[in-house]
Amino acid sequence: MTAKERMAIPPQDMPQQDPAVRARNMLEVALGYTAEMARKEASRCLNCPAKPCVEGCPVKIDIPRFLAFAAEGDFANALAVIRESSLLPAVCGRVCPQEKQCQKYCTVGKMFKDVAKAIAIGRVERYCADNVECAKQDRAASTGKKVAVIGSGPASITCAADCARAGHDVTMFEAFHKTGGVLVYGIPEFRLPKRIVEKEIEGLKDLGVKIVTDFVVGKTRRLSAIKNDFDAIFIGTGAGLPKFMDIEGENLIGVFSANEYLTRANLMKAYLENQAATPFWHGRKVAVLGGGNVAMDAARMALRLGSEEVHLIYRRSEKEMPARIEEVHHAKEEGVIFHTLENAKRILGDDQGRVCAIECLKYELGEPDTSGRRSPVPIEGSEFEFPVDTVVVAVGSGANPLIAATTPEIQTDRKGHVIVDEATRMTTMPGVFAGGDIVLGAATVILAMGEGRAAAVGINKYLGF
């Protein structure tokens, strides 16, 4: 097939649930490609010699090679290529922001001058992962070395798998009663079904990784004590510390951090009211503060929990929103009401201390800030109020502070992120490594995976392998 013929193949739209139906159920929104759709989408790839898409991939998947197999309908070999670099293709195919990573650099998208017309790499990846049974991963002969992995999110899963495959005896410690980290407590079922995460965890067990849940490192046992029993440790405890806006009324009944709101709904299954005993605040009119993926998740979750109105309030314009374009589009389709160039000034309560309204201030955009986005400038005297009974604050999260607070040997920066050697990912405590959001701040799944893989390389070298 010539390049011209490939360019003539239209992008394959992803089938999805009807917005009016899906806004009130927890089933996955995107239904996935058929085999023919996956083959056609992969056939659009020009197989560029320079492979710019690979440069945009944090774990450097050989994208043109896997797409070439997929274009032939050989999805088993396509998945084998993906898994050379990525352990979580079914996860990344669903939640990674490909439009800001691999697809951003796609030659086809650049030729059309539209990233939306780039090869839908993530969607083809998802099809391969969902429809091919993976062979069990090989494990090297035992090295006699013991590695502890703290946390069970994407960075920890990747590090644990790589260390286990190298022949080390790996034990994973998780503070919650379920493994998966942000994949299970943060990302909703309608974006990432939990059965997919459970399948990846089963893969770790097949490699011999021991998993200990309900174990809070720093409280159940200090890191320094754990270190006595292991030859190396990886910290991947993430960025689960919620941030607030420090405005009046944040202590009222009906105000939640997005972390708590989503954890109750996702990990603790609050939406299963007839089956789960998790208490949950049922807001009728909900305001979500923020413009990232977590804000979109919280807003869309509120709809599924029965809210009549959900308002998303963001102080910049939609163009500056850090959320994925697809997530913004889905939220709008489902009925979330967007208030851009506005921000909460204070939250108002009734005489019982419950949220009854929110006061907002209008903004305009000024000069770009250090992130490259135009700074929001408040418009004096533009305050207005509207009634709500629930406010969810989704303005970011910070590094988990517990391990650093209980282990003075580990240095952190002013934001609480663990400081590591860039080449080895070792912390200032010998034999202790770290990666993922605890180092980067809140980032993407695949960036965290890249951190876990780099740390595993560092651990192997430290252990003499």
The percent range for helix content is: 25-40%
> β content, as a range?
15-25%
Average of pLDDT: 94
Global outline: globular
**DSSP helical segment count:** 19
> Describe the biggest sheet?
5 strands, parallel
Q: How many strand units?
A: 16
Tell me the count of domains: 3
* CATH fold annotation of the largest domain: FAD/NAD(P)-binding domain
Q: How many angstroms separate the termini?
A: 45 Å
By CATH's scheme, which homologous superfamily of the largest domain applies?
FAD/NAD(P)-binding domain
Radius of gyration over C-alpha positions, nearest whole angstrom? 23 Å
The CATH class label of the largest domain is Alpha Beta
Q: How would you sum up this structure in a few lines?
A:
The protein is α/β, with parallel strands linked by helices. It is 34% helix and 17% strand.
Describe the model:
By secondary structure, the chain is α/β, with parallel strands linked by helices. The protein has three domains: 123 residues, Fumarate Reductase Iron-sulfur Protein, Chain B, domain 2 (Orthogonal Bundle), CATH 1.10.1060; 159 residues, FAD/NAD(P)-binding domain, CATH 3.50.50; 156 residues, FAD/NAD(P)-binding domain (3-Layer(bba) Sandwich), CATH 3.50.50.60. The protein has 19 helices and 16 strands. The strands form four sheets. The protein has a five-stranded parallel sheet, with helices on one face. Strands 6-14-7-8-9 form a five-stranded parallel sheet. Strands 10, 11, 12 and 13 form a four-stranded antiparallel sheet that branches. A hairpin with a 5-residue loop joins strand 10 and strand 11. The chain is globular, with a radius of gyration of 23 Å. The model has no long low-confidence stretch (mean pLDDT 94).
